Write the structure tokens for this entry.
Amino acid sequence: MKKLLVFFCALISCATAFSQGNNYEQTYEKFEGLALTPPMGWNSWNKFACNVNEQLIRETADAMVASGMKEAGYTFINIDDCWHGERDSLGFIHPDPERFPSGMKALADYIHSKGLKFGIYSDAGSMTCGGRPGSRGYEFQDALTYASWGVDYLKYDWCNTEGLKAEGAYMTMSAALRRAGRPVVLSICEWGTDEPWKWGPRVGHLWRTTGDIYNCFDCVEDHGTWKSWGVMQILDKQEGLRQYAGPGHWNDPDMMEVGNGMTVNEDRAHFAMWSMLAAPLIAGNDLRKMSKETTEILTNKEVIAVNQDKLGIQGFKYSSNNGLETWFKPLDGGKWAVVFLNRSDAAQTVTFDWRKTSIKDELSNRELNASNDTYKVRNLWSKKDAGTTKKTFKATVPKHDAVMLVLSK
């Protein structure tokens, strides 16, 4: 009898341990194989804030196709804050029935029918930044709901997160998405406060490095307890972060403001620099009402190719003089992207002798040495060849604008 009791006790202990292992073992890491180049798409917040509904989203999906953006590589249609309705008696979230009467599954199906992908928004706290229900305490339910809707991308914000540690909170949502089983790109929107570039690569696919952008080239908007940043301010905040970026894990300097009120020159410089940063190219304008100039900027395939280069190396600032900056980005196939960025309020003349300047990038172990090799020079905005590196490059850069080149052998 004593031996029998020992046997049953051992059996129960083993069963309990096995059961606990099955119930509590989690994978706190992102889905691999996603976002191997910076994600490209559109998000509703910059232009529409909380004024979102299913008609707007359907029309935006239509416009992404009709404008040529889909053909240029844009994929995601992402709804930001304020789509939420209430949670039901079991805690499952539902969309606002007045704004999204057909439901999110039908909307996702429509977007997928266009050959696009569907993104949504939530928050790690009790409420979203717009005061809607957050995911805190409901992470696994929300992940199951998103999977049932056909969600491909989740932007996960950081408002109302009292007492939470960012890394742990994002790990919980990553585990929830993995348990739900549908591969989802996880966008960590923690604003850079807890240095997400240090822990984000294993948890998500991109992470915000700063607070919110707004449509100003070189300004700061003070809201009292927080600030919004102009394009140049956000650009400056990327210094020292390039070693954390690469295929499947990207620094995110926030969504773009191209087409939202800056000048054409400023939009062009903005798009050029986000491409040099290997940043996600998430448009934030009204795709249904784009000017010809906005469309041409957002769909410039040669500039996009710099952003989408498979090496995934983030560009770096080489020099700065009186508001004129020179940036380099190593590309696949021995190519280099070069930008001359004029941050000043007057046109400036660039004179650059390639043969007298050797560019070395220790991070990528790449060197641009035009004294040994001759490169062809291509102007990406004019879409014209511009000679070779045997000749000193000269150009006038208008104020708040950028000349963008690719050098190839």
Observations:
- Residues 1-21 have pLDDT under 50 and may be disordered.
